UniProtKB/TrEMBL annotation:
It comes from Rossellomorea vietnamensis. Residues 1-94 form the NERD domain. It holds the Pfam family NERD. This is NERD domain-containing protein. InterPro entries: NERD.
Length: 261
């Protein structure tokens, strides 16, 4: 089972919420966390949500159909075996009401609680084992290896200028800016709370807002520290991967970007 895999099919990138790989079939699962009443209009290929008014969305059934075609195209480059690809749209909110203009939508749109039973039904539907367990695992590893995370320029997307950002270290207790660095720790100017690792969250924000590679000077500017040696000690203690030596050293924050601090 793979989550949020993004693959290049040779022409376009496509991202799948959940991909379940078995020896008999592959299942694409698109999860929607939406409340109210969802009306699937198969005539105009749109999803209409009725919840204090009506709002139209792109059709998730059309989306999984497209992903199915793209995944099949990509898999042809790996194997000549014809592994069936199924798809489902799963509504995660059990209180959501599902309606449709078609009597066949219930076969492709289900609530989360139905998923195990739907998978069991597919196991019964497909009798032939196209892949042995080791081959299925190998396919899953290859898909994970080909995963290309989407790198968004957050500032550009939301029209934010770098000078508009609040720099410095945020207090982990009262969430105020900025903390002052003294005696190997951060001291909040607002509530007086102390922390030795408050800068880690700030550096993760740097990686998400700008880039994952940075220099000592980049950190000083972002955290509001004047001392080169102070930053050197902080980064050395964090044991971050780096390339280059002395003033030319460039550190990587890729590990922080993936963490959940």
């Amino acid at each position: 089972m793979l989550h949020h895999v993004r693959i290049f099919d040779g022409t376009h990138y496509f991202q799948i919420d959940t991909l379940i790989i078995t020896g008999k079939f592959i299942l694409i699962v698109e999860t929607k966390n939406m409340s109210g009443t969802l009306y699937f209009d198969t005539e105009f290929n749109q999803l209409i949500r009725k919840n204090n008014g009506e709002v139209a969305f792109s059709d998730p059934l059309l989306q999984v159909k497209r992903h199915r075609a793209q995944l099949r195209k990509w898999m042809l480059t790996l194997t000549s075996k014809h592994l069936p690809i199924e798809s489902l749209v799963v509504i995660s909110n059990p209180r959501t009401i599902i309606q449709s203009s078609s009597t066949t939508v219930h076969q492709k749109v289900i609530h989360m609680g139905q998923l195990p039973f739907q998978i069991a039904a597919l196991q019964e539907k497909y009798k032939h084992e196209f892949l042995e367990r080791e081959q299925a695992l190998k396919l899953a590893k290859e898909i994970a290896r080909k995963h290309c995370p989407l790198e968004l320029d957050i500032l550009k997307k939301y029209g934010i200028q770098p000078k508009e950002l609040i720099r410095g270290v945020k207090c982990p207790t009262c969430r105020c800016f900025p903390c002052t660095r003294a005696y190997g720790k951060w001291i909040c100017r607002n509530c007086g709370a102390e922390s030795k690792e408050a800068h880690i969250a700030a550096l993760r924000e740097y990686a998400l807002l700008f880039r994952t590679e940075f220099t000592n000077g980049d950190v000083r500017k972002f955290l509001g520290i004047d001392s080169t040696s102070t930053v050197n000690k902080m980064l050395t203690k964090m044991n971050l991967p780096f390339k280059g030596e002395k003033r030319w050293r460039v550190y990587s924050l890729e590990c922080l970007k993936k963490s959940k601090l």
